[in-house]
């Protein structure tokens, strides 16, 4: 599972010209779900993401979390994060989870985020969406559940 987390001043997602979700200060999160991903992977990434201290404190240090700044989440499903571009010029998406599995995990992630964050907005799974954002920094972090699960002994979290 992959989360591309962008610290934003504002972000929105529209479908067919209608706004489906919008936030001010917070994270726009693109969520890629692979065919081997589980709820355990989702739990690891949600916990890590909501605890990230990437907002600036009064001294300009990235030391504050989403909760510390009263930030919101905009969660967007994006299977293209599993694009395989090793061969040719047309990406393959065979590493992405089938839609039924991916949608169930996407909804689970939304539910878990709502239990940790007051303002959680979302896109529509499988829809053609237009995403707008004002990246703050820019500041972008990529979380991959395989990397987080396979930490070496003695490494820092």
TrEMBL record:
- Short motif Gly-cisPro motif, important for rejection of L-amino acids, span: 137-138
Q: Enumerate the Gene Ontology biological process terms.
A: D-amino acid catabolic process
Q: What is its EC number?
A: 3.1.1.96, 3.1.1.-
Give GO terms: molecular function aspect only: D-tyrosyl-tRNA(Tyr) deacylase activity; Gly-tRNA(Ala) deacylase activity; Ser(Gly)-tRNA(Ala) hydrolase activity; tRNA binding
Any one GO cellular component localisation term in the record: cytoplasm
- Note whether DNA-binding occurs among the keywords: no
Localization, per the record, is: Cytoplasm
Reaction(s) catalysed (UniProt annotation): glycyl-tRNA(Ala) + H2O = tRNA(Ala) + glycine + H(+); a D-aminoacyl-tRNA + H2O = a tRNA + a D-alpha-amino acid + H(+)
Q: Transmembrane ranges?
A: none
Q: Which PANTHER family match?
A: D-AMINOACYL-TRNA DEACYLASE 1, D-TYROSYL-TRNA TYR DEACYLASE
Q: Which family does it belong to?
A: Belongs to the DTD family.
* UniProt remark on domains: A Gly-cisPro motif from one monomer fits into the active site of the other monomer to allow specific chiral rejection of L-amino acids.
By what name is this protein known? D-aminoacyl-tRNA deacylase
Q: Which organism is it from?
A: Murimonas intestini
| Classification of source organism | Bacteria, Bacillati, Bacillota, Clostridia, Lachnospirales
């Amino acid at each position: 599972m992959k989360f591309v987390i962008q610290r934003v001043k504002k972000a929105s997602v529209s479908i067919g010209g209608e706004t489906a979700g919008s936030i001010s200060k917070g994270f726009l999160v693109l969520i890629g779900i692979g065919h081997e991903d589980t709820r355990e992977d989702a739990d690891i990434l949600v916990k890590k993401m909501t605890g990230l201290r990437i907002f600036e404190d009064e001294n300009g240090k990235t030391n504050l979390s989403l909760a510390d700044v009263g930030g919101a989440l905009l969660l967007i499903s994006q299977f293209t994060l599993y694009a395989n571009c090793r061969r040719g010029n047309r990406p393959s998406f065979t590493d992405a989870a089938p839609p039924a599995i991916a949608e169930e995990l996407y909804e689970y992630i939304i539910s878990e985020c709502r239990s940790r964050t007051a303002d959680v907005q979302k896109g529509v799974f499988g829809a053609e969406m237009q995403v707008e954002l004002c990246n703050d920094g820019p500041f972008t972090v990529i979380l991959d559940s395989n990397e987080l699960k396979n930490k070496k002994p003695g490494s820092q979290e």
